[in-house]
Design goal:
mainly alpha; Clc chloride channel; CBS-domain; three-stranded mixed β-sheet; 28 helices; 54% helix
């Protein structure tokens, strides 16, 4: 027995994959934190041994900043490429630039020497498809041909997008933010942030947005940035071998994604902190800001809009679960919705153009040089004011026509957006939400403006709106409406306000934006506490513990397993279980781990061992350690048990045993247990009484109990 000491301790050397997690399982935050502390302690001790070890310790310390730099550079570059491609392919549905086919409409006309400011959207180099094919521009036949080709291009783009997602990367569909929020809480979804997902999401995002569907690209850009973060994590063992550290990087990557999506670095950091991240230490705050800054700087250097601005206007995501008959046929669903969208969108100029351009026009104020229908006011010929101080004026026929078109666009956007989300293509929620709010806000703004002009003696206008003054700014109403609608959908508050004023540069409007964000949250909360992210997480059954208070008066003994009339808890003993017993237990159960006790009679708790670690340890022992057979005794103690000489060699597995599993007593209030699970990120905790094991509470048990207390279906929690 003594001669086999080295063989019995073969687990003193780390084994591959021991300590890792299976797909659709939750990580153990405490174990990951402990492992990182041990790793850091070893590096610090070794740094004192030689100059090379000291240099390695410096490289380890700076690896986090290097990863942030790489994330910022790649996510900013991808966002710039996506913006340029979307502009070109969106305009491709209507025509082509003859001088350079890769130019969008705006780029084509601004490079022309024959373009005037008044007709800046018209130039001989840009031709619509009907003009190119038939030579006619204004005839009914030309309109029908342009209409047909617009629908055809939209169908082609959407079909290509859904086909690529379905065949190569199913995880590339939707926005990704609910899943990223779940992953950051500690859940494992293998492949969701993989290389194929990154590639297909980038390509299909361009196709989906260009098809004209009622969706945006900003939510998916957060997914793209997190894929970049996961990619660079694999280059550094500090992050690739520690799921807790990896999630610090992913939190910063989410901030970078929001930064390039909205052109708002500070808002990106606040969004990651307020909406997405589960664990956000101070160092992650600084690194998130650095990554967001680098990403925004990279995007600005690419200058996709040719105006030194970071974005044209802001947007985002979502995707609910499939329950309809049409949802069972994802390709057909996308084709049908795209066809309906394109057919109904083309006749209305406010739905035909890209939603970002629509929001930009709705936000703009009417200056003297504006040629939009929304600025068709009747001017007073006797007016002698500076061009930037135009008073309120009566609306002209163009404004009234625009109001009807905007009202139809509002109805169209609301209805079609409901059917667009959930399709198997990349899709964002922010742009449609902001568009709905901006349209409603602009309509209300114009109505209030005309009321103030024609009825300036009314009591609501009398004290602050004198005749001939610029009292009402409809563009501001659109901006506040966009913030209010988006806040109602997502329940964002602080980050929303910061993103909006970073986008518009309107710091002086921060008070109405704050009022809109708070009011929209109150109104939306009256209908239900869940934002769109939380609703998506619940619909998909992801094991996410939200931050709402648990106020029910139940105890740990009411939730723990086993319950009455259930089989006893599956446990391992410290020195009397054979390899065959362990393998049988693993085969007959699907539990993620097993408590280890002194004996089945005493039930005194020793520790906890993970199922995956047991499987890997026994497999490696059979391959590398002679004498390990099915009858070999598995022991978790420091010293080998006293066994007859005829017995086969025992197997020591103390190294994979967690000697300090988290425990609560059976009379611990569930309010405390829920807080412990939230703040420590536990996978499970053991329930004891005077050191004797009674049962176990898993994260899934907590979620089921919370759902039951809220009169919801506890079986809607699908994953472990």
């Amino acid at each position: 027995m003594n001669g086999a000491g080295n063989l019995m301790d073969f687990l003193d050397e780390p084994l591959p994959d021991v300590g890792t997690y299976e797909d659709f399982h939750t990580i153990d935050w405490l174990r990951e934190k402990s492992r990182d502390t041990d790793r850091h302690r070893k590096i610090t001790n070794r740094s004192k041994e030689s100059i090379w070890e000291f240099v390695k310790s410096l490289l380890d310390a700076w690896s986090g900043w290097v990863v942030m730099l790489l994330i910022g550079l790649l996510s900013g570059t991808l966002a710039g490429v996506i913006d340029l491609a979307v502009d070109w392919m969106t305009d491709l549905k209507e025509g082509v630039c003859l001088s350079a086919f890769w130019y969008s409409h705006e780029q084509c006309c601004w490079t022309s020497n024959e373009t005037t400011f008044a007709d800046r959207d018209k130039c001989p180099q840009w031709q619509k498809w009907a003009e190119l094919m038939t030579g006619h521009t204004e005839s009914a036949g030309a309109y029908v041909l342009n209409y047909f080709l617009y629908v055809l291009w939209a169908l082609f783009f959407s079909f290509l997008a859904v086909s690529l997602v379905r065949v190569f990367a199913p995880y590339a569909c939707g926005s990704g933010i609910p899943e990223i929020k779940t992953i950051l809480s500690g859940f494992i979804i293998r492949g969701y942030l993989g290389k194929w997902t990154l590639l297909i999401k980038t390509v299909t995002l361009v196709l989906a947005v260009s098809s004209g569907l009622s969706l945006g690209k900003e939510g998916p850009l957060v997914h793209v940035a997190c894929c970049c973060g996961n990619l660079f994590c694999s280059l550094f063992s500090k992050y690739s071998k520690n799921e807790g550290k990896r999630r610090e990087v992913l939190s910063a990557a989410a901030a970078a994604g929001v930064s390039v999506a909205f052109g708002a670095p500070i808002g990106g950091v606040l969004f990651s902190l307020e909406e997405v991240s589960y664990y956000f230490p101070l160092k992650t705050l600084w690194r998130s800001f650095f990554a967001a800054l680098v990403a925004a700087f990279t995007l600005r250097s690419i200058n996709p809009f040719g105006n030194n601005r970071l974005v044209l206007f802001y947007v985002e995501y979502h995707t609910p679960r499939k329950t309809t008959q049409l949802g069972k046929y994802p390709v057909l669903e996308v084709i049908v919705v795209t066809g309906i969208t394109a057919i109904l969108a083309f006749p209305n100029p406010y739905t035909r153009r890209s939603t970002s351009e629509l929001i930009s026009e709705l936000f703009n104020d009417c200056g003297a040089l504006e040629s939009s229908q929304l600025c068709d006011y009747i001017n007073n010929p006797n007016m002698s004011r500076p061009e930037d101080d135009i008073p309120d004026r009566p609306a002209g026929p163009g404004v009234y026509m625009a109001l009807w078109q905007l009202a139809l666009a509002l109805i169209f956007k609301i209805v079609i957006t409901i059917f667009t989300f959930g399709m198997k293509i990349p899709s964002g929620l922010f742009i449609p939400s902001m568009a709905v709010g901006a349209i409603a806000g602009r309509i209300v703004g114009i109505a209030v403006e005309q009321m103030a002009y024609h009825h300036h003696d009314w009591i609501i206008f009398k004290n602050w709106c004198r005749p001939g003054a610029d009292c009402v700014t409809p563009g501001l109403y659109a901006m506040v409406g966009a913030a209010a609608c988006l806040g109602g959908v997502t329940r964002m508050t602080v980050s929303l306000v910061v993103i909006m004023f970073e986008l518009t540069g309107g710091l002086e409007y921060i008070v109405p934006l704050m009022a809109a964000a708070v009011t929209s949250k109150w109104v939306a909360d009256a209908f239900g506490k869940e934002g769109i992210y939380e609703a998506h997480i619940r619909l998909n059954g992801y094991p996410y513990l939200d931050q709402d208070e648990f106020t029910h008066r139940t105890l740990a003994t009411d939730v723990m397993r086993p319950r009455r009339n259930e089989p006893p808890l599956s446990v391992l003993t410290q020195d009397s279980t054979t390899v065959e017993d362990v393998e049988t237990l693993i085969k007959e159960t699907d539990y993620n781990g097993f408590p280890v006790v002194v004996s089945r009679e005493s039930e005194r708790l020793i520790g906890f061992v993970q199922r995956r670690d047991l499987i890997l340890a026994i497999k490696n022992a059979r391959q590398k350690q002679d004498g390990v057979v099915s009858n070999s005794v598995v022991y978790f103690t420091e010293d080998a048990p006293q066994l007859p000489a005829s017995n086969p060699q025992p197997l020591k597995l103390r190294r994979i045993l967690n000697l300090s599993p988290f425990t609560v007593t059976d009379h611990t209030p569930m309010e405390t247990v829920v807080d412990i699970f939230r703040k420590l990120g536990l996978r499970q905790c053991l329930v004891t009484r005077s050191g004797r094991l009674l049962g176990i509470i898993t994260k899934k048990d907590v979620l089921r109990h919370m759902a039951q207390m809220m009169n919801q279906d506890p079986e809607s929690i699908m994953f472990n």
